[in-house]
Amino acid sequence: MKKDKFYFSVSTNAFQIEGGRNLHGRTDSLWDWFTKTYYHIPPVNSTAREINSIVEASDFYHKYPSDVKILSKLGVDAFIYNLDWARVFPTDGTKINPMGIQFYDRVFSELVAGNVKPIPILFHWDTPMWAEIKGGWTNREILTSFKNYCAAMFKYLGKYTDIWFVNDENKSFTVDGYLTGQFPPCFQDENAFVKAVHHLALSGAIAKAEFKKAKELGYVSPDAILGIDDDWSPPVIMAGVDADQKLIDNYNAWMRDLWLDPNLKGTYPQEFLDYIKSKKLDLKITPADLKLLQDNKLDFIGWNFYRPYFITSKTALIPEDQLHRPPGKLPFGDFQIVLPKNHPHYTKWMWPIAPQYLQEGLQGLKAKYDLPVFIVESGFGDFDDKSQELICDLDRIAYLQGMLTEVKAARTKDLNLIGYSIWTYCDIFSPSAGYRKDYGLVSVDFNSPIKERKPKLSYVWYQQVIESRGEDVTVNEKLLVKKLQELLKNWDIFLK
């Protein structure tokens, strides 16, 4: 990786954008099963959860050549992409699907030719069904299959990039997939939860061991780095509530350290070990496991920052009229997560808007780990008005301006920040809201048979930010509208 290089990027994820789910040897994964089984379309304009088909999604599988042109025109340095394990290993953990490898090879080749660095993430929640029916991440046997997957990806795609991630958002995957049942595999089982947590941590160490081998074999450059991506939301004590540093420390142990310490320090927080013991959970962390973690620490941190979490102690009684909804409690920890009405800004999905906590979060990561940090996801979900010729997503721009103002300030300080990536490139399937929650800088017409692309106002704004290398984050609406109009005049059939 180039030292002193700062990357402006966009990010997305295979099962949310790719489509082509039944093509060229690919078989079902966990999210194919989930969206088929729990398919649900709520009323128009509702923020209730939509669970829709991902068979086509945004059809990146067919449209990647034009999508790469759009990315190149945007001017991004990099494109962070969560790969699809089931496309490469569709039947078991040993047999590679040639067409799966060929697809990603073509995508990465196109990106590099367009001066966009591909940054792969190996796993983001989407376990192949052949592995899931054997227990998925609750079964230690999955690690042998994951090892083979890592080795194949490094061998065939290592020539294209020197920045990699193993996992994305292990916390959301395991908490919502194994404790609350909101995400697949839809468990509510503390034993399954702790097993999945541990095996995912081991998968990071196994990937690092394979990464070292790939370097020795010349598949990956000697200075390439491998990281882990976490979605820690920095804690903020709700105003007017008594709390102390112990509550903050307990929250961070569960919501940050548990997901980073094993792969960055080779240890687990004591809170997690005490939880396993006190609940008599069925997990044994062996000395060999700890040695594997110690010997194969990852190189840097990916951080998905959208918002902070407002918290109180679990026993605090907050009057209902002070909160937007009842507190969120988990089986572990001394904290509860709240949405106070006295916070002034929320998205339509009730995510707090508070970019000032970006720098505070970076300070916390530096103090704990002192490693490079790449902000992998940061974005704004909304109902975009697509009824007019111009999609003027000013609320998204305002959110991103706040974030990139903080990024600009953070880069002047010793906070180890090496990149910022917007979630997401184009409109996609959202696990929490289907196709009604727009995140993209580029619109996708999901009613169009070709999933037609069209840039939004935020696209030309981010173009301005990148051209200035992060210095110009101003918002001149009149000038941006003019730029978008000019862009649309030349938005030919090879971009749509």
UniProtKB/TrEMBL annotation:
One GO term (biological process): carbohydrate catabolic process
Q: Does the keyword Hydrolase apply?
A: yes
Looking up Pfam families in the UniProt record yields: Glyco_hydro_1
> Upper lineage ranks?
Bacteria, Bacillati, Mycoplasmatota, Mollicutes, Entomoplasmatales
Similarity comment: Belongs to the glycosyl hydrolase 1 family.
Q: In the UniProt record, does the keyword Phosphoprotein occur?
A: no
Q: Give GO MF terms, alphabetically.
A: beta-glucosidase activity
Top-level taxon = Bacteria
One GO term describing the cellular component:
cytosol
**Which UniProt key words apply to this protein?**
Glycosidase, Hydrolase
Q: What is the name of this protein? A: 6-phospho-beta-glucosidase
